Amino acid sequence: MLDKNGIARRIAKELQDGYFVNLGIGIPTLVANYIPQGIEVEFQSENGVLGMGPFPFEGEEDADIINAGKQTITTMPGASFFDSAMSFGMIRGQHVDLTILGAMEVSESGDIANWKIPGRMVKGMGGAMDLVASAENIIVAMMHTNKAGKSKLLKACSLPLTGVNCVKKIVTNLALLEVVDGGFRLLERAPGVSIEDIRKATEGNLIVEGEIPEMILD
Amino acid sequence: MIRKTVPNVAEALSGVKDGMTFMLGGFGLCGIPENAIAELVKLNVTDVTCISNNAGVDDFGLGLLLQKKQIKKMISSYVGENDEFERQMLSGELDVELIPQGTLAERCRAAQGGFPAFYTPAGYGTEVAEGKETREFNGKMYVLEHAFQADFAFVKAWKGDEAGNLIFKGTARNFNPCMCGAAKITVAEVEELVPAGTLDPNQIHIPGIFVQRIFQGEKYEKRIEQRTVRQKA
Fold it and tell me: For domain A4-29+92-207, which CATH number applies: 1.10.3230.20, 3.40.190.10, 3.40.1080.10, 3.40.50.1000?
C-alpha cells in the first residue's frame, strides 16, 4: 500500500519532459518533490505564476509571492507572473499539459466531485471547475476509500459534481487505474496489494485484463 | 496628463453607499486593498454585495466587514479560511454565490472590455450551470456567463503614478488588473505613488484610463496566511 508520498511518487512518473503542470492542494503538491531526473517541467499556480520553485528559506518569505494554497513560495529562472484572467486563459485554452488534483469521489465515467458536501462543508470550487472542464490530461490523486472505509471510486458520484467525463487516470494508495468506456481499468497494483483488495475497495466497475503488474517506484 | 490622484482614502471612497456592489482584488490576503477595506469598515456601509475571490480570514481582509455584518452577499470562488463566513452562510444570514475562479476573473474582464457575456466550459454538467443557457461549439458544451455590474472596484497595486497607471508585484497581481475599469468607479491604492513620467510606459500593467482615483495607502500589513519555509542545508 502507498502513503501520500508514494502516491505522489507514482504520479511523478507520468510527468514528461516539457510539460506545464498545474498541481492541486494536498497530495498533488507533493509531486513536485519527485520530478524524474533528466526532464524539465514547469509548475503553474492559478493565482498567477508559472515556474514555481520550492518554499523560501526562513526569513526570505515574501507576502507578495504565494501559491494557490496561499503558501509562501519562490520562483525558478524563467518564471513569470500574470493576472487571474490570463492564468485561466492558459488553463481553458489547454496550454497547461497536465492537471493533478485531489477528489472526494470519482465515477466510472470520469465525473469528479471535490468541492462541496451539502450541509456540512462548503468551501467553494476555487479553480477546480475551470481546470477539469478544460484540461486534456487529468490525474486524480486520492485515497481509494474515505475515512469511513467507503469506496471513492463509484458507479456515480453522490456529491455535487465539479466536472463530468474528465478524469483520465487515478492513483490511489492501492492502485493506478484508467477511466475507460465501462469502468475503471486496473493498470498497476500498489506494492503488496492484491487484485482482490482493489476489487473490494472499488464500488464502480473494475476492469481487470491480463496480468496486472505491481508498481515500480524509483 | 489627466490627474487621478486623491489625497487620502476618505476622498477615494466618496460616493460609497449602502446597498452597492463592490469588486475587491486579492487572492487570499495577497494583494488585497487593505486601506479601502479599513475605510469601508469605518464608513459602516451595509447591505453591500462583494465580488472577491475569497472572503479574507476572521480578523483581516473582508473578514472585518463580515464581523460587522456589513455584507449582504458574497460572490467568490473559495471561502475556506473564514469561520465567521461559514457560520453566516450556513445560518442563512449571508447570501453566497460560489462560482469557478476562472469564470470570476472573466466576468470582471468582460465588464472591463465591453462584452455582455461569454461562453465557458467551466461548470458544465454541475449545479453552477443550473438555469443557465448552454451551447455546443465544436462538439463541446459551454455555459453562458454574464459580465459583472459593479459600482466600485477597489484594487491594490505596487506602484502607480498620478495618471493612474499601475504596476503590480508578484502574485499580488491576481484579480486586481481584471477589476480595473470593470466597475463604474475604480479606486486604486498603491504602496508607492510617483509623479507622472517616472514609470517606464513599457512596464505599465494597467493604463490609467481604467482608473478613476488613485492614492497611496497609509500602511500595508501584508499578512501571510500560510508561512511555509524550508531549512538551509
Answer: 3.40.1080.10
Query: In this complex, which of B86, B122, B171 lies closest to A129 when CB atoms are compared?
Result: B122
Domains in chain B, number? 1
ipTM: 0.96
Q: Where are the domains of chain A?
A: 4-29+92-207
Residue of B nearest to A94 (CA): B121
**Sign of the alpha-carbon dihedral angle for A26, A27, A33, A36:** negative
Q: Strand ranges (DSSP E) for chain B?
A: 21-24, 48-51, 71-76, 95-98, 117-120, 134-137, 140-146, 152-161, 166-167, 185-194, 213-216
Across the interface, do B27 and A55 touch by the CB < 8 Å criterion? Answer: no
With CB atoms and an 8 Å threshold, state whether B101 touches A64. no
Q: Global pTM? A: 0.96
* Confidence band, pLDDT 50/70/90 cuts, at residue B84: confident
